[in-house]
Amino acid sequence: AESVKMKKDVQRGLDYTPLFRFLLSKVGKRWDSVFSEAVARLDKQEPIFWMVSMDIEDADDYIITSESSYFSGLYVDKDGLLQVVAPEIDETSLSPTCKCCTHTFNGKPFTKKFKLE
Length: 117
Ligand SMILES: [Zn+2]
Prior knowledge:
Layout: H1 17-25, H2 31-40, H3 46-51, E1 52-53, E2 62-64, E3 69-72, E4 74-76, E5 82-84, E6 104-105, E7 108-109
């Protein structure tokens, strides 16, 4: 996995939060069935691969879907199961980048406060 500072700036405007929540809820499940279920709900496949990498080497530890919404990066392991890239990262480990927004990780508010430094 890449470093914790690695970020992916996902296309603005469209809200794929329900997709990201769906994918998160399928961690540990078979990717081929998760993928067919996800594709059936979408007009295009691309947003799935903002979050999910086929190889942990190219996987992001987390993605940022708007200035303040963060989600775990996911990858497909050798057994074909969906997994979290960096399970040690959660809402308690990242710091907000501004004071004005409520930052969330997988839908949970960050516990760290914004600090000017
Ligand atoms: Zn803000």
